[in-house]
Design goal:
There is one protein chain. By secondary structure, the protein is of the alpha/beta class. The protein is built from 4 helices and 15 strands. The strands form 2 sheets. An 8-stranded mixed β-sheet has the order 7-8-9-10-11-12-15-13, with helices on one face. The chain has a 7-stranded mixed β-sheet with strand order 1-6-5-4-3-2-14, with no helix packed on it. The longest helix is centred in the C-terminal third of the chain and has 11 residues. The chain starts with a strand and ends in a 9-residue tail after the last strand. The relative contact order is 0.17.
Amino acid sequence: MQRRQFIRYTSIGVLSFVSMGKPSRVLAQKISNSGILIQYLGHTCFLLTGGGMRILINPFRAIGCTQGYILPKVEADLVLISSQLWDEGAAENLPGNPKILYQPGVYEINGFQLQGISVPHDRKGGVQFGTNVVWRWNQAGLKILHLGGAAAPIELEQKILMGTPDVAFIPVGGGLKAYNPEEAKQAMEVLNPRIMIPTQYLTAAADKKACDIVGVDQFLALVEGMNIRKINNNQLRVQAQDLPQKGTLIRVLDSQKVIKS
């Protein structure tokens, strides 16, 4: 961890100015028009590429619910961590030298703005598992929200900070430290994202004896009748023109692509 550059803030409202290089106006417009490529790497881990940035969210160690996933050793410019639990905060030994954000705060990186919003990581006000950081940012013209391992209902003040995202990553598998299917449905209805991607649910990667979450189909059964599609790939490209004018699209990415053979 000594080679990593951790950017730490304990107060919302603090700005961090970090130089990472800025694309030209023509290039910025081109990469904005191309949208973002979302790659599902297992559990709550995703790599979002677009707008001149590669953002890796919640890399993990292979343990419990993430036992059988391929470790997300991918290059990124920036790594976002929701908590320092092993299934969503193992940022050691990543290739390159990415910047890493893991505390709540407001950050600006050459005009690229991010906000980490503190919410409880359990249903007891954070007593069991502490704080979870919900990450919010704009990338390639799209408003992104990743709830990490949120477990408590979204309060009005938090909803104001989170806004109405274009793409929201919401845990659905339950257990002690994340939304169960019913809570995930409620959170989706509060946020009203234009695209919702379920996270943190039971797959063939799990050590079943050490994993207390349920599969994504239990959540999908609750939202039957909505625009739901299971993608036969762990990648999804999203552009502004793909966003619906009304309602929420639910897109489930294929976990089999990132499970050890």
